[in-house]
Design a protein that fits this description.
By secondary structure, this protein is an all-alpha fold. Among the domains are: about 10-85, no CATH class; about 95-175, no CATH class. It is built from 27 helices and no strands. The longest helix is centred in the first third of the chain and has 36 residues, at about 160-195. Residues about 515-530 have low confidence and may be disordered.
Length: about 525
Amino acid sequence: MANRSADMLFQLVKSLEKSEKRNFKLFVRRNSSSDNLKTIQLFDALDKMSEYDEKFLLQKHKGIQKKQLSNIKASLYRQILSSLRLIRDEDNIDIRLHEQMDYARILYNKGLYMQSLKQLERLKELARSHRQLTYMQQALFFEKKIEALYITHSMQDRADQLSAESDEVTRELTSVNRLSNLSLLLYGWYIKHGHARNQNDLDEIRSFFEKHLPGGVYKAESFYEKLYLYQSYCWYASIRRDFLQYYRYSKKWVDLFGEYPEVLPIETAAYIKGMQNLMNALFYLLSRQKLHEAIKTFEQFAHTKLVEQNENNRILTYVFLYTARINLYFLKGTFTKGLRLVPFLEDMLKKYGIYLDEHRVLVFYYKIACLYFGSGNNEKAIEYLNKIINLKSDLWIDLQCYARLLHLIAHYELGNFDLLEYLTKSVYRYMAKMQNLSKVEEEMFAFLRKSFHVGAHALKPEFEKLLATLKKYEGNPLESRAFAYLDVISWLESKINNVNVQDVIAQRLMQFQKAGSRKNYVTSKEPDKKK
């Protein structure tokens, strides 16, 4: 598992750039004292560590006593944040707006009410141009406080104007709050459960969505209303495996930043997340060319200032870009070629492990395992699948279940029949407990149990029977999870033809290209918007 140290100070120190470390040293030494020297000692020690080890730290630095460590760490944490605060970021709208609010409060405390009001007007103008509603609300509350306490004569009918402005901002904030809550709750359901497993899941999520969507058929007006509305529809469509709708709303999500380009520097992470969902939708729709084009667009964006000069944006971009590249290898059937990415992925997980959430790390392990499985290296596939299986997590039940199923198939490929009977029972019990057994999985388990007692000469007809049975379920949304997480059809065809999975997919792609009529669910035009 990647380095996931929970020490907050260690994480903060490791996140600093060279220029930020240099700025911190200058900041601390401005008012030199014995306490500051200890904080610098601790800072240098943490900076040199690859992993946080408190016992080693105390042994190495005798000047820092254990009873002092907690206070020194707290002091160092505050000093680092203070030094970072002094590095003015002209492009950070939050810092600029906070600064203007601070100025307005300073002027107010000096009794300079008219100057404070003028400062608040400038703040509102800046907040309005960048669609920052919460700052608008803060400024309006402060204005009303000044106007209510002091006779400023700043403007006739000032009370009516402030009241109208407050009502409009409150209305929009209420709408944004309801939509953002809906988006977050749907995303939380998706992270925990994955895609809908049965009709009960579909009914539950449909009822939940309709209940919480403001005003039934909702018409969004502002940027943030549209953003959270499109996000909500994305999660809703993905959960139901309605990939055309998933594509439609992820594209709306990304295109929104073309409609409001001034918001891109503020909500860069939201744009990056939108691109991730767009690329995922194209992967699920088997649109190789469109996915390739989206990756190219995203690669160009990765070299912009917004990404290169922001650690958070850079990490998110790398994670989603590598995921999309692996998915493209899956679609092309070039699994062996995709294995060239594994060293880069391992380096990335090691370098950014303390920043990545557990779910993203597990997704990478599963995709790496699929690359090895598809190229015929089942031992390495099992190695990465064990990293998922051995981690006790209640996140992403789908991933946990299909990691176990792929693990079982990889052992089957290796001929580890002494393990298979136990593993089959174990995986079946686990998936049944998680209510994750569809008809596709039931058929696969039935086949695996039967194959223990079938001679090698008789297996090919059994593979052909299972293939014919499973193909009947390909168009059923509730049965499609198995085909998305594990390309069972290609695996069966590989067994029948005695080749690797990647050879089956590559051959199928070649046939489509020769015929010139490959099935593609996404055209250059947006899909029909009728539900």
